[in-house]
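thread from #wetlab-drylab

HS: before we spend reagent money on co-crystallization trials with zinc ion, can we at least see a predicted complex? here's what I'd submit
DV: go for it
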Amino acid sequence: MVSEPNEALKDNLGTAIWIDGIQKLQDLEIASFFKSPITLNEAEKYAFSLLNMAVAECRSEEGFLVSGHANLMLHSPLYRIINNKQATRGNSYIFESDEIGAFRPWTNTISLGTKFYSTFAGKTRIPFYTFNHENTHLKVFKGVYSNLSMCDEEMRDLFILSEWVCISMDLILAHDLMRANQPACFRELCRVPFNQKGQNIFTRVCNSIREVNSFANEFRQTFLSGERRSAVFDLISEETLHLHREYAENTLLIEARKIPAAMENGEALSLLEKLRTSSLTDLISELIGVQYV
Ligand SMILES: [Zn+2]
C-alpha cells in the first residue's frame, strides 16, 4: 500500500484492511507484504488469500468504486504510485451521459463516458485499468497539453506518444497480476485486448519485461507512423488507433495552443526525445520512478 513497511499502518486503506481482518491476519507481519509471492510460507499464503478476497472491491474515492483497486495497490508497484490517494488528490472524476466523455486533463478533470463505467444498485464503478490510464494522463503528462515552443508535428508526436504510454500501462498491470497470480483481476483486464481470439496479447507477451518492451516498441512505431502492423491490433483496434491520431492532429492541437505553456522548452523537447527512443520500462523508471527489470 505504501513503499515503506513502517508507513503501511498510516495509510487509510492499509488501516481499514488491518482492522477488518485483524483476527485472521494476526500472524502476518508487515514485512510479509514486501516479500516476493514465491517466497511466502503457507501461513502467509493463506492470510493473503483471505486478504485478496476481502479487497476484491474497494471504495477508493467518494461517490464511486474502482474495481480491484486494493488488489492492484497490493500487487502492482506501478499502480500504487499512480493511483494512491496523495497522487490523485485534486483530480475530479465526472461521469457523462454520452458514450465517450471529454478529454481535458489540463483542467485536472477526468471525464468518462458510459463506455468506461457501469452503474449497479446506485453505485458507479470504474475498472482499475481505466482509473490507472486516466490518472496517468494527469500525473505524468498534464504539462504536454499546452502551447509548448514546438512545431505542430512535434506536438502531435508528443500527444500520440503520451497516449502510447497510457495505453501500454495495461501491459505492465497484466505483468504484475500474472506474476502475483491474481486471476480475477487479470480476467477483468482481459476485456481490454481488441483481438481476444486464441491466446490473448497479455498472456502472449506479458510474462517477461523483455517481451513487453519489444511489443511496446512495435506498438509505438505503428501509432506514430500510421503503418499497418497486424500484431499491434491484438491490443487495440486499427480504428481506435486511427481515431487517437486524428484527435491528436486536429482537436487536441487546437485546444493545447490556447493553454499557456506548462513546460520549459528544453524540458518538453527532452521528454519528446525520450518518448521517441526509450524502452517502455526505462520511461516508467524515469517518469514514474518504478523499476521493472
Ligand atoms: Zn488516453
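DV: Residues 152-179 form the longest helix (28 residues).
HS: ok that's useful, forwarding to the group
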